[in-house]
Amino acid sequence: MKALILIGGLGTRLRPFTCNTPKPLLPIVNKLFLLYQIELVKKYGIKEVIFCLAYLAHTFENHFGNGSKYGIKIHYVHEQEPRGTGGAIKNAQKYIDGQALIFNGDVLMNIDIETMRRYHVKNKAKVTIALTKVKDPTVYGLVETAKNGQIERFLEKPSWDEVTCNTINAGVYIFEPEVLSLIPPGINYSVERGLFPNLLSKNEKLLGFINTSYWIDIGTIEKYLQVHFDIIDGLVGASIAGRKTGKNIWQGSNSFISKEAVIDGKLVMGNKARIEEFAQINGKVTLGHGVIIRQGAVLSNCVVHDNTEVGEGARLEKCLVGKQCIIETHSVLSPGTALADYSVVKKYSKL
User: In the listed set 188, 222, 256, which residue is the last one of a domain according to the structure?
Assistant: First the structure.
């Protein structure tokens, strides 16, 4: 089995951070998001991955090369213009010579791939879709299944009086190779709106596999922050980069925490990150590589990307700060602030 990752989207919901960086290359707790998916497929013995690219495609090859550094073989398939999920999969057809595991490039989950594969094979499915349960199904597309797992209906963003279940498409699929012949070439095509209903109309085996493990779509600022907190809390089952130096502290190489700093929460620091005297860390905080927190600054439940400097007495709460920013003395970043890369916040400013 080979894995195919759909990573051609623009990541508009995560702007300004995706203006110059594709969403899958954003750091999650100081590790590129795509690495979590690569680690997951490697865990289940998959050794070849196909990246389906469109937006800023060259940046992926610059980061990953042929994949040997990560113990995996990577193929790259470029689209000149986005052609939807189906178009991206069709574009990669030449690399698919057996069952294909397909990921949407904006979901993080800890799914048991081997159990899903066995379920798919046992039931002789053409396509198996991973499903996950959510509290508010009205913001997603529902997937209704029979007791035997056969998918019966798709319902896009239902009102509450239309809700019949709480299972949604989790963005992970297993395809039999012959299914790709049903995807038309050279056009913008959605497997969700085209291929899957087509399979239902042909009475083909289209199964739902309910995933009970962790799942999140990282596509918004709020969810992007949340996944950091969830990883730090151990809810994801993912490893945290750095050396654990305290009960709730992980430090990268050559990082520094002053003895006079107050750490009242959970902290992850990148390489060469620095926290000076009398600074305070509350809740869950991730500091990227080379971040400097000057004396007396207070950070609560926030994420700060690489090489940013937070000035003396500044206060940051539940916010996301881009790379190479300068936050000057006694500035305040309020909850919900999303500060773009290379920003400068002048002293005593309040955002």
Answer: 222
Which residue shows structure tokens 């999650």?
A: 28
Alpha-helix residue ranges (DSSP H) falling in 57-153 = 57-64, 84-91, 113-122
Nearest to 1 by CA among 101, 88, 146: 101
Cβ neighbours for 136, distance < 8 A, ≥ 6 positions apart: none
- Domain span at 115: 2-222
| 190, 298: one domain | no
Residue 37 is which amino acid? Q
Write the DSSP assignment of 215-238 as a string of letters. Answer: EEE--SHHHHHHHHHHHHTT-S--
In the chain, the number of structural domains is 2
Torsion of CA 27, 28, 33, 38, to 10 degrees: 120
Q: Could you tell me the pTM of the whole model?
A: 0.87
Q: Tell me: the pLDDT tens digits for 295-335?
A: 999 999 999 999 999 999 999 999 999 999 999 999 999 99
Strand partners of residue 303 = 286, 320
